[in-house]
């Protein structure tokens, strides 16, 4: 049975969580633990890959490890296409979300097993597919709690975004300490336990809190479509397995060639995805206009996430190799900071600043900045966060960086993130064609996928360019796009056709 958006929204208690729909509370809790598991694992992942085998690592080259981390992040967001399509056409957002949580938990369990590369690859596969099912759909359910023109929606996404960053804040401390005091696999096991808590909470509370939201596909497959897609998917899977087997035997399939494939996919997929929606007979002329407005916002999102996501590989390695971690030499405090703890700096600032940003958007009312202006601000602060790292390089004279420069870089990027990221999720819901409600959020998550796919190549420039030139190059690109988006502000607003 298909429900209208009004029926689904009306089935949810519209108060019960700080003035927001009751269902936002359970989704907040689930996302907290899912992000705890992901960011806890990610805090030590790049170190695990390039650490020596004798230390419990995989012994992979450092540049390759950084590129793999980007590929992994890209594929997690690319599979959001699959998750969004399955939700819209087959499962509904709620079931997709739950199946994804099960696969993610299994992936973290696999990572906790001391079986080297095979266990690592199995874990990557399970988490990539599981995240594709869960990530776009939990955000789609959040959006489904509100009417499209509900003024609380932007603020609701900011609150939801806090759950992401509260999980990301706590997990590096816990997982990093377990890895330091025991080993990598105990740290990964903590991530698995976090995901199990999220799954249990969702199963227990989802029916009473979420009503009808996401319970059925928004655009279910017909009998003919089911037969056609089953045949098509079977052929694609057989061809994919054959290609992998053949290229492995020929020695063609290496990490380097795979990274190039991922980068090409990162560029092509959003283009194909956008064209599919734009040319669909189920999309109205007004919805097409809104899709055109989405293009510059999408490009801005890619540039922003390219910088933000390098906090987990380029800046993570920079923290360990180029930053003074012995606080006795900086502040006279007898303590050495674990490099993994820098992964908590970003979420610390988000948790501190998110309530103020959310309240500011609400307080501004009709003076609230337009969506493209918020995106432009996000680009500006992201670009400055990299450019600021040039200053200590010119004065350090070969010494290790003061850790406060790295903290300042994360702080500036966080301001940009709070301007752009929650707004991106919210505007994706608002601009989504009715027939592609879940898939539009998948397209938004492709901004991150494309960014990390491109990063898989960009991070290879760090060694030949050096950190100073690299930070200047990437930061400068962001500021150029900032200026371009400012000039397009009125055009984008006009094309959004009444959505703000």
From TrEMBL:
Keywords: Cell membrane, Membrane, Transmembrane, Transmembrane helix, Transport. InterPro entries: Dipep/tripep_permease, MFS_dom, MFS_trans_sf, MFS_Transporters, POT_fam, PTR2_symporter_CS. It is a multi-pass membrane protein. GO terms for biological process: tripeptide transmembrane transport. Residues 26-493 form the Major facilitator superfamily (MFS) profile domain. It is found in: Cell membrane; Membrane. The chain crosses the membrane at residues 70-87, 158-178, 184-205, 232-252, 258-279, 291-308, 340-361, 373-394, 470-488. GO terms for molecular function: dipeptide transmembrane transporter activity; peptide:proton symporter activity; tripeptide transmembrane transporter activity. GO terms for cellular component: plasma membrane. CDD domains: MFS_DtpA_like. Belongs to the major facilitator superfamily. Proton-dependent oligopeptide transporter (POT/PTR) (TC 2.A.17) family. PANTHER family: PROTON-DEPENDENT OLIGOPEPTIDE FAMILY TRANSPORT PROTEIN, RESISTANCE PROTEIN MDTM, PUTATIVE-RELATED-RELATED. This is Peptide MFS transporter. It comes from Macrococcus bovicus. The lineage of its organism: Bacteria, Bacillati, Bacillota, Bacilli, Bacillales.
